[in-house]
Every structure is written in structure tokens, then in C-alpha cells.
Amino acid sequence: MARAPRSSTDFAQLPTEAAHPRAAKLDTMAPEAIAALMLSEEAKAVRAAQARADAIGRAARLVADKLAAGGRLIYVGAGTSGRLGTLDAVECVPTFGVPPSRLVAIIAGGPAALTRSVEGAEDNVRDGEQRLRRVAVGPADVVCCVAASGTTPFVRAALDYARFRRASTILVTCGGDPPNGERVADVVIALDTGPEVIAGSTRLKAGTATKVTLNAMSTSAFVLLGKTYGGLMIDVRPTNAKLWARAIRIVRGFSGLDEASARKLIEKAGRRAKVAVIMHRTGATAARATEMIVENKGSLRAIVGDVDFDPSENGAR
Fold first, then answer.
1. Catalytic pick from 122, 129, 196, 313?
2. Residue 122 known to be catalytic
3. Which domains does the chain have, with CATH numbers?
């Protein structure tokens, strides 16, 4: 029989392991009452993230600076935390037109852990370091470590190795601030989510707060990198019918072109909506429009100015 792993951490003292007073008779409650309790608690997750808006903003700027200089954003986590990091990395690629190589997701236990529990993976300190070594982490990168408890051995080992390799570091945790003000990462986002309705089940409030935080951090970073115009996904890459329709709507809203002409322009622009808009508004070729994007650090507004975008697709004014 396998031995139980030992740890110097007093898990009973972790905020995420505490028993919730409102859940003392959870097993006797009606399903409607359980759902109401769950949802009232989940609302606290968003407030916990809101309370750390300044730290999330600092993390976003750090991410933007590293990506702008050619580095990568590397997410590291175990279990729910690892799955949420992977989700954010994967979804940023089509949303913001980012090369997949610039966003790396590492989860304890490897890809198999995305769909099933890999027992003991989160306790594997050696693997935490080795996985970062395998992707050749270095000073150009920013490593975002996600650990609900803040103590996950795999994640803390990865964090230590990232710091050793002089990468910039972010820690997202629901386990409270580091003890004695210890500077464990360049930016620490400590989310005060309190005890879970089911003690220790960090896929609940801690998971919600983590997802909200990662959404806010990565989206803010890509806004800084010029990946949006207002609230428009201007760098969307049309890879399916829905994204083609979105790209066409964006180009039509800036140009007044009909659907067929907008589609043709996007094709001519290398299937890049932003390039298509610049071509229409400035008369530039696709190659020149691409150069203008680089010259203006990705900002469409810096190139075309303030445009009164027409969401009805009748054209900008």
C-alpha cells in the first residue's frame, strides 16, 4: 500500500480548508436551499476579485510588457487551478489573435489531468521544476502560478524555479497573503474567498474567483497590447463560421461595405480584420497595414483615430 505523503504544511489552518458555518446542516437542506446558499457564496468570489483590482492591474501590465518584448505568458497549476490556467491560455489565442507559442499552460500530471484526476501529481516537487525546465523558461517570460491553497508543492516548486531563472512571476491564491510579508512573487494576487460550502472543495468559490481574476488579468493585458478597439475583438482570427461572421461585422461597422465585399477584403488582408479595416480606412496595402500595426504597437486607434463604429453594419461615420 502506498504511503500517505507527508507535508510540513498545517492544512487545517488554511482558509480554503475551514468549515463553513452556514453549511453545518447542508445534508439536511432542500435542493433549492442548497442552490441558494451556493449562489450567495459564489457572489462573494467576484467581490474577492474586485478587492484585488490593483494587484490584477499590476499583473496585467507585467504580462503585457513581457509579451510586447517577445516573451511568453506561462500558466502553472494543479487540479482546478491548472485547468483554469489552461482554459485562459487556450481561449486567448482565437480571441486576441495570439500565436499559441506565446501562451503556455502547464498542469500537474500533464494533459491527462485536464479530464481526470491524476493522483499525487500536485505533490510532485521535482516535476514542477522539470516541467518549467522543459519549456526553457527564462528572463523574457512571465510565469503565472495558480494555487488555491497557496501551498501546492508542484506549483511552489515551479514558482521557485521561475524566480531562479529570473522570469517575472505572478501568484494567484486564495490561501491568504504570504506570511510575514514574504515576497514570493513579483505580484501576489491573494483572493479572500473564505471557507467553501464544502470544506476544501476549491472548485467552488476559489475556482470562480480564480477564473474571474485570470479573465481580468489576461484581457487587460491584451487591451494594453492593442488587441481591442473599444469593446471590439479587432484581432479576431476567423477560423469558424461564428468568427467569420464576427470579423465581417467588425469590418462592415468600420467601412460600410456590404457582406460580400467585407469578406473579400478580409481575405485580401490575410484573414485579419484589423488589417482589413486599416486597408479600407487608409488605402494601404496589406503589407503596409501590417507595418503600421507594428509601428503603432498594435493600436488600431492610433492609426485610424476615433471612429464612430456603427454596430448596425451600415458603416462608420
1. 122
2. yes
3. 12-224 (3.40.50.10490), 241-304 (1.10.8.1080)
